[in-house]
């Protein structure tokens, strides 16, 4: 076994032993375990995505569980987002599969885990340039508040580029170009590039931008029709290098598939088929995945503006409910959670409903994970605590209890103090900011 895997496995064994001796949690810093991991690794930076997991966490566990290099293991991520776990899985020699309810996330994750000859991508870029030059005006797709986000001449250029990409016949090349196009469409929009959810830059309020005002002014000045293809070309070239880097570092790609709902991923994976699950599920009240993807979803025709709501409905942790849904009292089946929510309901019925629905849906997701795990297989869950109505709410502990009911036993608990993960802004006084991340390692009982 390589020495790094040996060290990771020894560390895991030490955490297990500490738990057996009564330790409830160990504090860790995953960045220091794998400090040589650079953000620019393989395809990780192909496309931005909110609340991305740091690669250090999956990298550490994949290393620890890859005990026998002669046998190919399977790792799944049922909430795979842009595919951080899947990319790390390939880099560590695993076969990988995932699920995500956001079609843009699935597209990004597919492209990030796929091998395509980088030279053919560059040849395709040259053909695209020619095709765009030949095209007359093209109809733009239905993008939410298109005129709010773009100058009209930028819309015209992006529409031509999009039409040219749609003519690419090879799916692998077309999807790679679509991901690059989504990055470009966001870059050419008037949305603040520092934020994951689109917020239009308003230079009238430049004192609010302080030191960033100059950077944002330059960003807006760069939005000329001539720059659309130039920007796209740069993105394609950089991303083609990332694909090359993935291919140079990993064994031949072994992506099993990417499904659309964590609650039924076992139907794709098969029963008792997965060795390891590493996942960071959404948070209670995390409604922003679809909103932050709305420009890409619209430009790529993955969701029209009137379809965004129904996409959001598939999101565990969502925030929008009708009055009649909120009025309905929901039991999570966890006594402690139900008692806490009964109290919260008196203060804020909507917040209580959001949390209750979250646990009901996470139960279904755990049931699917339990089905697909091999007996003795592990689930590594990365999740933060919340506050609800200004009260501490121990989501990790409650999820652990839920997993236990389903047949997953705790092996150890870790806490890592996070620095930044996109979505974690304090939005309002009732839904809280997450300041640390819990990592729970649970094992499926061998007898079940
Ligand atoms: C914390 S993010 C995961 C980020 C991912 N680890 C990465 O590095 O990009 C949680 C993800 O769960 C997805 N999600 C929410 N509900 C889901 C469901 N029912 N099935 C699958 N994915 C879901 C969201 O779309 C979001 O991408």
Outline the structure in words.
The structure is a single chain. The chain is an alpha/beta fold. The chain folds into 2 domains: 3-100 and 255-444, Rossmann fold (3-Layer(aba) Sandwich); 118-246, no CATH class. It is 48% helix and 13% strand. The protein contains 20 helices and 10 strands. It has helices spanning 3-20, 30-33, 56-65, 84-91, 103-112, 118-134, 146-149, 152-166, 171-187, 206-209, 213-221, 225-249, 265-269, 288-292, 294-299, 308-313, 323-327, 335-347, 349-372, 395-406, and strands spanning 26-28, 74-77, 95-99, 255-259, 274-279, 373-383, 386-388, 391-393, 408-417, 436-444. The strands form 2 sheets. An 8-stranded mixed β-sheet has the order 1-9-10-6-5-2-3-4, with helices on both faces. A two-stranded antiparallel sheet has the order 7-8. β7 (386-388) and β8 form a beta hairpin. α6 (118-134) packs across α8 (152-166) and α19 (349-372) packs across α20 (395-406). The protein is globular. Mean pLDDT is 91; it is low at 420-433. Residues 49, 51-53, 79, 81-82, 84, 99-102, 105, 261-263, 280, 282, 289, 314-316 line the site of S-adenosylmethionine.
């Amino acid at each position: 076994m390589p020495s790094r895997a040996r060290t990771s496995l020894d560390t895991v064994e030490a955490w297990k032993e500490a738990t057996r001796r009564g330790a409830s949690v160990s504090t860790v810093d995953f960045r220091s375990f794998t400090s040589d991991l650079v953000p620019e690794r393989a395809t990780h930076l192909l496309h931005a995505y909110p609340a991305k997991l740091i690669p250090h966490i999956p990298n550490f566990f994949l290393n620890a569980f890859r005990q026998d290099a002669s046998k190919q293991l399977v790792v799944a991520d049922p909430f795979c987002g842009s595919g951080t776990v899947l990319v790390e899985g390939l880099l560590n020699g695993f076969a990988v599969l995932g699920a995500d309810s956001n079609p843009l996330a699935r597209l990004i994750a597919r492209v990030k885990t796929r091998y395509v000859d980088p030279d053919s991508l560059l040849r395709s870029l040259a053909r695209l340039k020619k095709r765009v030059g030949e095209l007359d005006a093209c109809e733009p797709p239905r993008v939410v508040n298109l005129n709010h986000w773009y100058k009209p001449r930028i819309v015209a250029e992006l529409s031509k580029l999009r039409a040219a990409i749609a003519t690419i016949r090879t799916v692998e090349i077309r999807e790679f170009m679509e991901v690059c196009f989504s990055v470009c469409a966001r870059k050419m929009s008037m949305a603040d590039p520092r934020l994951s959810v689109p917020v239009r830059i308003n230079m009238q309020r430049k004192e609010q931008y302080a030191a960033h005002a100059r950077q944002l002014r330059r960003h807006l000045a760069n939005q000329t029709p001539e720059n659309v293809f130039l920007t796209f070309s740069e993105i394609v070239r950089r991303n083609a290098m990332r694909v090359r880097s993935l291919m140079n570092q990993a064994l031949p790609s072994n992506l099993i598939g990417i499904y659309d709902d964590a609650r039924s991923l076992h139907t794709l994976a098969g029963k008792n088929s997965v060795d390891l699950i590493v996942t960071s599920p959404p948070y209670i009240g995390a409604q922003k995945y679809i909103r932050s993807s709305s420009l890409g979803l619209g430009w790529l025709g993955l969701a029209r503006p009137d379809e965004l709501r129904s996409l959001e409905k598939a999101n565990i942790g969502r925030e929008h409910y009708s009055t009649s849904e909120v009025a309905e009292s929901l039991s999570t089946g966890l006594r402690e959670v139900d008692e806490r929510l009964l109290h919260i309901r008196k203060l804020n019925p909507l917040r209580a409903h959001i949390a209750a629905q979250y646990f009901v849906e996470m139960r279904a997701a755990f049931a699917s994970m339990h089905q697909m795990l091999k007996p003795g297989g592990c689930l590594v869950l990365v999740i933060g605590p919340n506050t609800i109505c200004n009260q501490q709410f121990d989501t990790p502990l409650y999820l652990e209890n839920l997993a236990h009911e389903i047949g997953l036993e705790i092996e150890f608990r870790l806490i890592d103090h996070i620095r930044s993960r996109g979505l974690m802004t304090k939005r309002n006084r009732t839904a809280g900011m997450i300041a640390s991340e819990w990592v729970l390692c649970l094992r499926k009982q061998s007898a079940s």
